[in-house]
Amino acid sequence: MSWGLTTSGWKRFLIISLALTSLNAESARIVHLGDHIQLTGDIVSGDAQKLASIISQGETVFMNSRGGDALEGLRLYQVIKAHQAHIKAPRTLFQRCQSACAIAGLGGRTVQGRLAFHMPQLSALEKSHEARAHLEEIRKAYVRVMQHELGIDDTLKVITQTGRFSFYAVDFYPDRYLNSPTEQNLPAPANQTAPRLIANRSR
Prior knowledge:
Elements: H1 7-19, E1 29-33, E2 36-40, H2 47-54, E3 60-64, H3 70-82, E4 86-88, H4 100-105, E5 110-117, H5 129-149, H6 152-161, E6 166-177, E7 196-197, E8 201-202
Parallel strand pairs: 2-3, 3-4, 4-5
Antiparallel strand pairs: 1-2, 5-6, 6-7, 6-8
Helix pairs in contact: 1-5, 2-3, 5-6
């Protein structure tokens, strides 16, 4: 999925992605642990390439991240989608998969756990017209991914009911088979339980 971005758009997004994550953020820890991959920590540029270098087709990825670089979240989504990985995310107070982590998690062939979404934001210091225009483009890319994977209703809730520090959380019990380009009109397999949504909540 290209999200309708041009090559020049990719270059411009690199500018805005720096404003969407902490300047002090370290790259996520992405390692093999036994029979799965674990991704923890803030998401920064280069993490998708790191994941792509170690992931195998159909592998399980445990994701525990508060988010980070919005563009890198989209890149992680693409890597996860291409490898038909299975995503597991925590539901606890101190462990979570939110923001850029959540958009990345939507690439999973199955998802188990909680993904918490909000729209990408600029840092409080970034006021330029160019940055705001770039933000609008990357938000459109997020909307395309969410519409494809979650549907219109939940996407609208993310757009209208979230802010910088508030999220729309989706619980997946026990796994949810998400859409793919060739299967988006097929029902979930019989052994899969339909997803249940929890109420929008601020954290």
